[in-house]
């Protein structure tokens, strides 16, 4: 089947699969690959496209992939199907949108028991925005609690899907797979590009490979590409010679040409992954295209935190590990930073909270570095009295009140989909989080969609956890950045034994400052062990103390018994305690356990 | 070489809820007999090796060694005398649980030249005793104590525990007053600690153990120190109090980091800078011995640094502290020079005191001794 034939654009279908987390996207992808013999049964691992451990554990796809399948349709013709897998999380909104831009159609997977979720709707909107043909598929119909009738009704209530025929499937049981293939061939249009026009290829992803360097995923829009051609990235205006092109089966397979409509990869001696920007257009330097493909944006991080190695000796390792991760993920931002409390580390920026957690977890798991991450923050815009405007994400850079004219914070447009009985508690929650109500509509009589404008800094702490716990896990959230709004924000500093601890400062809305400060000093009192002397813990704004707790002095710490058999054991115990104390961070005379810096994240 | 000799008997009637010692509920008498015959063999194995040493003290610990018949105890000690050179004035102690002593047994102990009894009293509150998993009452303590006195024992220790679950300050005072009213020669006063592998640890993890706070522990301990001083007890080690001339000679061997030989399952020895341990499990212990081998499980040759460390942390437990001259004679280095930084840091913190001869814990240091010890370990 592995033919390298020159294909007819009318026999190409480019599609992706969009779904809420856990609705079975990866399992559907697996079935499609098996059905077309792209992966022989014996080689298969569960969920073939998710090849990072983390992806498999969390059930989400982090990096998008593209696989070519060959399918013999019932009409007797052979089709090339390019499955472009997309990250399944709101943090990767831009990556998703570029992957979708490479497609003409999308399979929309909905869990037969869970029905339409907030993310389902945003996926639909995104697909419609990219002019994709949507094929709704209700998955997991074999489950005991499946309710396909209800889900069909929910789908019919969505205007964009009113006309669409719904496929019932169980990827696990292999039900509906051939219907899906026929729908892809018959309902998704072929790509519309022209092979004879000047080259335009959309970059929708890139990965770094230590043997081949940077590998770029492209969708051929117009023209032809071959090894030996000198190409240009249109937004960065840099030239490269193409050394290899190919397709994914799902392993990389070099071929001689890629033509308009096809999807594949490109290697062209890119020095640095930063030279490659997802969404950019590649053209031919000999016969350049005039117009760049639309939709390109430079991605900017939304969530920031500082990352420090617990053991300062690990700084170099952390630096190397971050560099390696950035090779594959140009959306990670990092720059060196020094903290009085935590030593040498990095200020990092991420696309969202999940992205941040994934990066932290990969650093710890794949590179074996124990980290301290400070509380996440967002980027604030501060206009100073002298007219200057600064952008800060790090509380330590917050100017004094005297200098500030106004502060703006990022807001998101959030939609929450919830069974109607939770509307009340969710409204209360959003109220607590300073949200502005925008709209409410019913998807059906029991499910409502609530639209809010919410400050991003309220979302990044614990909003999602609270939303889930207050709605017994039923409510779902989706958001995208809306813009900046003026807010009354203050920086709260924490002092331990009268010493300022830079890593514990945080920015918070004025109204919530006291409450938050109180919780944090109480939490620190719990976490910091008694010392040989009394230790005050204070929270202050502009040098004015707003909350205080005192850790009483240690009164008694003595091993009661020590006889013949105890001596070695007791010495070892003391040695262990001493080593434990060495791992603590010393602020002035006070030993503070690592968790104090983490604990601030978990304040309820 | 002078030596302390420790003999371990690893069986009890039942296991107390706080106990992490090497002891097991006794199942049958055969267990005892095969264990004791192994003990004899181990003693015999050391006889040759130690023919130039003098045993200054013997300590029969457990478990509950007084579960053994008077005759067996007598025979074991006689066997020691046949195999080792034992000082005529040796201090010979046996641990006893209330309820395991009667007149006849005490007479045999006397005959065996046992001259010190350490009575596991723990508390004079029956409901706390029950909570600890003890199988005796406060009255049993008084009875055993009186019988021992009647049998002529003039050196009796009582073990008392404090900071027990649900224990109040008043309750602890009552126990102490009761103990002191019996006029024991020595008191060991232990703060309850929750150890691995005990029933208490399980309850603790389940949140079912209502332990006194650190402040309450402090109050109990500091009150006891004062109370015992008023009653003419010398506070000569962190947890130990003695009437004049009644310090435990055997235990001082440990605190002065002097050599000792441990015989029996799980017993530790410290000889010529080696510290080693016998197999804990009595079955394994018996098996090794019956195969003609010393039942050694593990051991280490302590580096000079570790020996100095241990000497300091043990010595600082005592009222005597660390004497510069003795330290220099033993290790050929000047402690003030070697640990200059640590010593001054601790003096500044008010935990340590020095004079022309020695360093010792201050009163504050006594309560926070671990903070002192940690400075002297690596």
From TrEMBL, chain A:
Q: Supply the CDD domains for this chain.
A: EF4_II (cd03699), EF4_III (cd16260), LepA (cd01890), lepA_C (cd03709)
- Gene Ontology cellular component? plasma membrane
Q: What is this protein called?
A: Elongation factor 4
The record's listing under SUPFAM superfamilies reads:
EF-G C-terminal domain-like, P-loop containing nucleoside triphosphate hydrolases, Translation proteins
Tell me the enzyme class.
hydrolase
Instruction: Please name the InterPro entries in this protein's record.
Output: EF-4, EFG_II, EFG_III/V, EFG_V-like, EFTu-like_2, LepA_C_sf, LepA_CTD, LepA_IV
Q: Where in the cell is it found?
A: Cell membrane
Q: What is its main location?
A: membrane
Stretches of the chain forming a coiled coil according to its record:
none
Name the species this protein comes from: Candidatus Infernicultor aquiphilus
Q: Which family does it belong to?
A: Belongs to the GTP-binding elongation factor family. LepA subfamily. Belongs to the TRAFAC class translation factor GTPase superfamily. Classic translation factor GTPase family. LepA subfamily.
Q: How does it sit in the membrane?
A: Peripheral membrane protein
Which GO terms label this protein's molecular function in UniProt? GTP binding; GTPase activity; ribosome binding; translation elongation factor activity
UniProtKB/TrEMBL annotation, chain B:
Pfam family, any one: Radical_SAM
Cellular component GO terms, alphabetical = cytoplasm
Q: Which residues form the Radical SAM core domain?
A: 1-231
Give the subcellular location.
Answer: Cytoplasm
Q: Which GO terms describe its molecular function?
A: 4 iron, 4 sulfur cluster binding; coproporphyrinogen oxidase activity; metal ion binding
Question: Which cofactor names does the annotation list?
Answer: [4Fe-4S] cluster
Spell out the InterPro entries in the cross-references: Aldolase_TIM (IPR013785), Coproporphyrinogen-III_oxidase (IPR034505), Elp3/MiaA/NifB-like_rSAM (IPR006638), HemN_C (IPR010723), HemW-like (IPR004559), rSAM (IPR007197), rSAM_sf (IPR058240)
For the keyword Metal-binding, the answer is yes
Task: Tell me which SMART domains the record gives.
Answer: Elp3
Task: Print the keywords alphabetically.
Answer: 4Fe-4S, Chaperone, Cytoplasm, Heme, Iron, Iron-sulfur, Metal-binding, S-adenosyl-L-methionine
Q: Name one GO biological process term.
A: porphyrin-containing compound biosynthetic process
PROSITE patterns xrefs: RADICAL_SAM (PS51918)
State the source organism's domain of life. Answer: Bacteria
What function does the entry list?
Probably acts as a heme chaperone, transferring heme to an unknown acceptor. Binds one molecule of heme per monomer, possibly covalently. Binds 1 [4Fe-4S] cluster. The cluster is coordinated with 3 cysteines and an exchangeable S-adenosyl-L-methionine.
**Family in the record:** Belongs to the anaerobic coproporphyrinogen-III oxidase family. HemW subfamily.
Q: Which PANTHER family match?
A: COPROPORPHYRINIGEN III OXIDASE (PTHR13932), RADICAL S-ADENOSYL METHIONINE DOMAIN-CONTAINING PROTEIN 1, MITOCHONDRIAL (PTHR13932:SF5)
Can you name this protein?
Heme chaperone HemW
Recorded source organism is Candidatus Infernicultor aquiphilus
């Amino acid at each position: 089947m592995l033919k390298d034939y020159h294909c007819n654009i009318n026999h190409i279908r480019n599609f992706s699969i969009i779904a809420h987390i856990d609705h079975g996207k990866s399992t559907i992808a697996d079935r499609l690959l098996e059905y077309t013999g792209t992966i022989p049964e014996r080689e298969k691992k569960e969920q073939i496209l998710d090849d990072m451990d983390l992806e498999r554990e969390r059930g989400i796809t982090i990096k998008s992939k593209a696989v070519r399948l060959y399918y013999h349709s019932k009409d007797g013709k052979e089709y090339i199907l390019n499955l472009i897998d997309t990250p399944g999380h709101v943090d990767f909104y831009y990556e998703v949108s570029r992957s979708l831009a490479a497609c003409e159609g999308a399979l929309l997977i909905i869990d037969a028991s869970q029905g339409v979720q907030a993310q389902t709707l945003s996926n639909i909107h995104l697909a419609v925005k990219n002019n994709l043909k949507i094929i709704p598929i209700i998955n997991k119909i074999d489950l005991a609690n499946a309710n396909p009738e209800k889900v069909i009704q929910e789908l019919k209530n969505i205007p964009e899907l009113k006309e669409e025929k719904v496929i019932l499937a169980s990827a696990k049981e292999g039900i509906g797979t051939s219907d899906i293939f026929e729908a892809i061939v018959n309902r998704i249009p072929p790509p519309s590009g022209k092979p004879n026009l000047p080259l335009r290829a959309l970059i929708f992803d890139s990965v770094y490979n230590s043997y081949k360097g940077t590998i770029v995923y492209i969708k051929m829009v117009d023209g032809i590409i071959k090894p030996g051609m000198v190409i240009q990235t249109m937004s960065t205006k840099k030239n490269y010679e193409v050394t290899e092109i190919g397709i994914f089966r799902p392993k990389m397979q070099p071929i001689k040409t890629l033509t308009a409509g096809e999807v594949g990869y490109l290697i062209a001696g890119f020095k640095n992954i930063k030279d490659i920007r997802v969404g950019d257009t590649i053209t031919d330097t000999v016969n350049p295209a005039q117009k760049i493909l639309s939709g390109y944006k430079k991605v900017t991080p939304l969530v920031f935190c500082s990352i420090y190695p617990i053991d300062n000796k690990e700084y170099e390792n952390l630096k190397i590990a971050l560099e390696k991760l950035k090779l594959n993920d140009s959306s990670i931002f990092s720059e060196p930073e020094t903290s009085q409390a935590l030593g040498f580390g990095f200020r990092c920026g991420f696309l969202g909270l999940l992205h941040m957690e994934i990066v932290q977890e990969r650093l710890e798991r794949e590179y074996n570095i124990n980290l301290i991450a400070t509380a996440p923050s967002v980027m604030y815009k501060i206009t100073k009295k002298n007219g200057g405007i600064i952008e800060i994400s790090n509380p330590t850079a917050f100017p004094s009140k005297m200098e500030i004219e106004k502060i703006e914070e990022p807001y998101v447009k959030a939609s929450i989909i919830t069974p109607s009985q939770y509307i009340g508690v969710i409204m209360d929650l959003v109220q607590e989080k300073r949200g502005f109500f925008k709209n409410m509509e019913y998807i059906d009589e029991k499910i409502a969609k609530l639209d809010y404008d919410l400050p991003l800094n309220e979302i990044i702490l614990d909003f999602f956890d609270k939303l889930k716990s207050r709605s017994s896990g039923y409510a779902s959230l989706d958001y995208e950045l809306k813009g900046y709004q003026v807010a009354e924000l203050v920086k709260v500093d924490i002092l331990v034994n009268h010493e300022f601890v830079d890593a514990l400062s945080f920015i918070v809305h004025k109204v919530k400052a006291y409450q938050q400060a109180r919780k944090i000093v109480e939490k620190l009192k719990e976490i910091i062990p008694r010392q040989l002397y009394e230790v005050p813990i204070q929270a202050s704004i502009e040098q004015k103390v707003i909350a205080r707790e005192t850790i009483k002095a240690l009164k008694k710490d003595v091993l009661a018994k020590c006889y013949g058999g105890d001596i070695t054991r007791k010495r070892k115990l003391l040695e262990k305690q001493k080593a434990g104390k060495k791992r603590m961070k010393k602020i002035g005379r006070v030993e503070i356990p690592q968790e104090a810096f983490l604990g601030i994240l978990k304040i309820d | 070489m002078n030596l302390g000799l420790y003999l371990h008997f690893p069986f009890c009637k039942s296991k107390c809820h706080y106990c992490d010692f090497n002891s097991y509920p006794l199942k049958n008498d055969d267990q005892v007999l095969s264990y004791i015959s192994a003990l004899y063999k181990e003693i015999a194995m050391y006889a040759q090796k130690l023919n130039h040493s003098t045993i200054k003290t013997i300590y029969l610990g457990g478990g509950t060694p007084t579960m053994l018949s008077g005759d067996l105890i007598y025979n074991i000690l006689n066997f020691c005398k046949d195999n080792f050179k034992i000082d005529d004035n040796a201090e010979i102690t046996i641990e006893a649980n209330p309820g395991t002593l009667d007149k006849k047994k005490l007479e045999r102990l006397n005959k065996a030249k046992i001259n010190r009894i350490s009575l596991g009293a723990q508390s004079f509150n029956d409901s706390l005793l029950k909570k600890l998993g003890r199988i005796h009452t406060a009255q049993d303590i008084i009875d055993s104590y009186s019988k021992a006195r009647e049998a002529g024992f003039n050196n009796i220790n009582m073990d008392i525990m404090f900071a027990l679950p649900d224990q109040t300050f008043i309750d602890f005072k009552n126990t102490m007053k009761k103990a002191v009213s019996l006029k024991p020669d020595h008191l060991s006063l232990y703060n309850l600690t929750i150890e691995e592998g005990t029933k208490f640890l399980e309850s603790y993890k389940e949140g079912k153990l209502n332990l006194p706070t650190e402040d309450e522990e402090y109050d109990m301990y500091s009150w006891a120190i004062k109370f015992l001083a008023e009653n003419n007890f010398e506070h000569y080690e962190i947890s130990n109090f003695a009437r004049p001339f009644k310090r435990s000679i055997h235990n001082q061997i440990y605190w002065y980091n002097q050599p000792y030989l441990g015989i029996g399952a799980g017993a530790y020895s410290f000889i010529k800078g080696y510290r080693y341990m016998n197999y804990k499990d009595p079955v394994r212990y018996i098996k090794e011995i019956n195969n003609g081998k010393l039942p050694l499980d593990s051991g280490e040759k302590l580096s000079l640094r570790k020996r100095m460390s241990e000497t300091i942390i043990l010595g600082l437990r005592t009222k005597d502290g660390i004497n510069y001259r003795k330290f220099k004679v033993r290790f050929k280095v000047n402690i003030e020079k070697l640990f200059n930084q640590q010593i001054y840091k601790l003096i500044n913190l008010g935990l340590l005191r020095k004079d022309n001869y020695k360093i010792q814990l201050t009163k504050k240091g006594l309560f926070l001794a671990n903070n002192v010890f940690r400075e002297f370990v690596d």
